[in-house]
Specification:
heterodimer, A: mainly alpha, 21 helices, B: Helix Hairpins, 0% strand, transmembrane (chain B)
Chain lengths: 510, 112
C-alpha cells in the first residue's frame, strides 16, 4: 500500500489544523506555511499524474479495511489530473492572496487548506458516503472563505449560498439512503456491481436516486434551475477565493462523471443512467445559452466572469450528457482550460480594479486607469484565450469538442450553443476592453501608483500555463483520452477495487 | 411501525420544505433543521425497521444493520454544525443588512 496517496488529504489537514492552533503566528509565517503546503501539493499532484499513467488504478485502503467494507481511495488518470489542476490553482490563489487580500480577515490560510483537503478528498474517494463527507468539508470551508473579509454583499450572497447547499446536502443524504436501502453498500465499485444486477422492480427507485444525485451535483456545478446563487456569490467573494471557486463547479462535474458513468454505468444499456442523462442534455444547453446572455448583460468584470463559469459548466455538462468517450476526453481538456482561464479573469478583475481611480471593475464607470499598456496587454491575451481564439488552449479544446461531437446525433444543437455563446463572449470582452483601455479618462492630477509585480506575475504565469497547454496539447490529449477510456470501462474499475472479493462470489463475512 | 415512521417523515419533510420557502431567515433555518431531522430519520430507517435487536453480531439471532446508525451519526454531527453556522450567519446578515429577509431587503416594504 502506497502511503503517498493519502498525502493530498493529510498535508492540507495538518497544515490547516496547525495554522488554526498557531493563530498568533505573524502573517509572514502563515503565508509561507500556506504556500509551502500548496507547493507540496503540486509535487504530489505531479507524482499522482505520473503514478496514474503507470498503473491504471492505485488503491489505498483506509485503516487497511478491505473494500467493500472499508473506505477506499482510488487514484486513476481522471482524479490525478484533477488533483494536479487543484494544486496548481491553489498555489496561484494563495500567492495572489499573500500580496494583501489575506489580511482582510483572520484564518485565511487555514480555511484555504481545509478547502483543499475537501476538494482533494472528493477527487480521491471511492466511497459515496465519504464523498458526501468531503463535500461537507469543502462546503463549510467555502462558506467561511466566501464571507472572508466581511461586508454586506458577502453576507447577502453567503446566506443564499449556504441555504441552497444545506438543502442540497439533505437531498444527497436522501439519495444515499435510497441507494443503501436498495443495495446494502455505498462503495462505488460495489454499488456499480449490485446496480448492474438489480431486479427490474428496483429500477424506479434507482432512477429516483440517480435523479436526486443529479440535482445535488447540479447545485454544486450550477446547472440551470440551480445556478442563480452563483453570479452573486462569485462576484461577492474576494478575488483569490473566487479564483479557487473556479474548481468548485468542476467538483460537481467530476462527481457526475464518477456517479453516472461508473456507478450507474456498468449495466448493459444503463437504464438508470439514461433518464438522468436525458434530463441533463436540454438543461445543460439552456445553462450554456443563459450563461452567454449573462456574459453580455453583466455590469462588472467579476459578474461577467461568474457567467463565464456558467458557460463552461454548460459546455462540460452538455458534452457529458452525450455519453461518448471521445467527447469526454475533449471536455476534460476544456475543463483544464476553463478552470485556469476563469481563475485568471477573477484575479484580473481585481488587478485592474485596483488601478482604476473609481468604479473598481464596473463597466458603467469611466475612470482614469494606471498602467494602461501592461494591464491592457494582459487583458487582451486573456480575452483571446477565453474567447477560444488561436493560439491558446481555448481554441484547441473547443475545436476538439466540436470535432468529436460531429459524429453524434443532435450535434448541431451543441455546435450552435457553443459557437453563439463564444460569439457573445467575444462581444462582451471586446466591449469591456475597449471601454477600459482605449478610452480611459485622462488623469488630471496625482502620480500613478506603482504596479504590483507579484500580483501581475501570478496572472502572467497562469496565462503562460494556458499557452503551454496549447503548445503541449498532444501529450495532454493522449493522457486525457486514456483517462476517458478508463472511465468508460467501469468493469475495470470494479475489478481493480473489489478484486478478490468478487471472485469469491461476492459473499463477505457473515 | 412503518406507517408511523412514514407519516413522521412526511410531516417533517413537508413542513421543512414549506418553511425553507418562507421569506424570513428564521423560518428558513427552522425549515432546514426539520428537513435534516427528516433526512436523518429516513437514513436510519434504511437499515430496515426492527425492535429489540442490537447492532452487535453474535449476541442475538437477528441483529440490526449497524452501518446506517454510523451514517446517521455522521449526518447528525454535520447537520448540527451546519445549523449552528447558518444561525450565526443569519444573525450576522440581519444585523448588517438591517433586515431578516433572505434577500437582505423586503421587496414589499415600500408598499406598506
Amino acid at each position: 500500500m502506497n502511503h503517498l496517496m493519502i498525502m493530498p488529504i493529510v498535508i492540507p489537514l495538518l497544515t490547516g489544523a496547525f495554522l488554526l492552533v498557531m493563530y498568533r503566528y505573524n502573517i509572514g509565517r502563515q503565508r509561507s506555511l500556506g504556500i509551502g503546503s500548496c507547493l507540496l501539493l503540486v509535487m504530489f499532484g505531479i507524482w499522482a499524474v505520473v503514478q496514474a499513467g503507470v498503473t491504471d488504478y492505485t488503491l489505498y485502503h483506509l485503516g487497511n479495511w478491505q473494500p467493500p467494507f472499508g473506505i477506499v481511495l482510488v487514484l486513476d488518470r481522471l482524479s490525478a489530473t484533477m488533483l494536479l489542476l487543484t494544486a496548481l490553482l491553489s498555489l496561484f490563489c494563495v500567492l495572489y492572496a499573500s500580496r494583501g487580500s489575506d489580511r482582510e480577515g483572520s484564518h485565511f490560510h487555514a480555511l484555504m487548506q481545509f478547502q483543499l483537503m475537501g476538494i482533494n478528498g472528493a477527487f480521491l474517494t471511492g466511497d459515496l458516503f465519504n464523498l458526501f463527507v468531503f463535500f461537507e468539508v469543502l462546503l463549510i470551508a467555502s462558506y467561511a472563505l466566501l464571507l472572508h473579509g466581511g461586508g454586506r454583499a458577502r453576507s447577502r450572497a453567503g446566506l443564499h449560498y449556504v441555504i441552497i447547499n444545506l438543502a442540497g446536502s439533505a437531498l444527497f443524504l436522501l439519495a444515499l439512503g435510497i441507494l443503501y436501502g436498495l443495495t446494502g453498500t455505498l462503495n462505488m465499485a460495489d454499488l456499480a456491481r449490485v446496480i448492474a444486477d438489480a431486479p427490474e422492480a428496483d429500477l424506479p427507485l434507482l432512477k429516483a436516486a440517480s435523479l436526486l444525485l443529479m440535482v445535488v451535483f447540479g447545485i454544486k456545478a450550477a446547472l440551470l434551475p440551480l445556478l442563480f446563487w452563483l453570479p452573486r456569490a462569485y462576484s461577492a467573494a474576494s478575488a483569490p477565493v473566487a479564483a479557487l471557486f473556479a474548481i468548485m463547479t468542476k467538483v460537481g462535474f467530476y462527481a457526475m462523471v464518477r456517479v453516472f458513468l461508473v456507478v450507474f454505468g456498468l449495466d448493459e444499456g444503463a437504464p438508470a443512467n439514461e433518464t438522468a442523462l436525458a434530463w441533463l442534455w436540454p438543461t445543460a444547453l439552456i445553462t450554456l445559452a443563459l450563461g452567454g446572455i449573462g456574459v453580455l448583460g453583466a455590469a462588472s468584470l467579476r459578474t461577467l466572469t461568474a457567467y463565464l463559469v456558467i458557460v463552461s459548466v454548460g459546455i462540460l455538462l452538455a458534452t457529458l450528457s452525450r455519453n461518448d468517450e471521445q467527447l469526454l476526453a475533449a471536455s476534460l481538456f476544456y475543463l483544464l482550460h476553463s478552470t485556469i482561464m476563469t481563475a485568471v479573469f477573477f484575479l484580473l478583475a481585481d488587478l485592474i480594479g485596483r488601478y482604476r481611480d473609481q468604479g473598481y471593475d464596473r463597466f458603467s464607470v469611466i475612470s482614469p486607469l494606471s498602467h494602461r499598456w501592461v494591464l491592457g496587454s494582459i487583458f487582451l491575451v486573456a480575452g483571446v484565450s477565453m474567447a477560444s481564439l488561436p493560439p491558446f488552449s481555448g481554441f484547441v479544446s473547443k475545436a476538439w469538442i466540436l470535432q468529436s461531437s460531429s459524429r453524434l446525433p443532435d450535434y448541431l444543437w451543441l455546435w450552435a450553443a457553443i459557437l453563439v455563446s463564444g460569439l457573445l463572449i467575444i462581444a462582451a470582452l471586446s466591449r469591456a476592453g475597449s471601454g477600459w483601455f482605449w478610452r480611459p479618462q485622462e488623469r488630471t492630477h496625482k502620480s500613478e501608483p506603482g504596479l504590483d509585480r507579484g500580483r501581475t506575475a501570478t496572472v502572467c504565469v497562469m496565462l503562460a500555463i494556458s499557452f503551454a497547454l496549447a503548445v503541449f496539447a498532444q501529450p495532454v490529449m493522449d493522457y486525457l483520452e486514456a483517462a476517458a477510456r478508463l472511465v468508460y470501462q467501469p468493469s475495470g474499475y470494479v475489478d481493480a477495487v473489489l478484486g478478490d472479493y468478487v471472485h469469491q462470489g461476492g459473499e463477505g463475512i457473515e | 411501525m412503518e406507517l408511523v415512521i412514514a407519516i413522521t417523515l412526511g410531516v417533517l419533510t413537508s413542513t421543512g420544505v414549506y418553511l425553507i420557502l418562507r421569506a424570513r431567515t428564521f423560518s428558513v433555518v427552522l425549515g432546514l433543521t426539520l428537513l435534516s431531522h427528516g433526512v436523518n430519520l429516513f437514513l436510519f430507517s434504511m437499515g430496515r425497521l426492527t425492535t429489540a435487536s442490537p447492532a452487535v453480531i453474535g449476541l442475538v439471532e437477528d441483529y440490526t444493520d449497524p452501518l446506517p446508525q454510523a451514517l446517521v451519526l455522521t449526518a447528525i454531527v454535520i447537520s448540527f454544525s451546519m445549523t449552528a453556522f447558518v444561525v450565526v450567519l443569519a444573525l450576522k446578515a440581519a444585523v448588517e443588512l438591517r433586515s431578516d429577509h433572505v434577500d437582505g431587503e423586503d421587496p414589499n416594504e415600500d408598499r406598506q
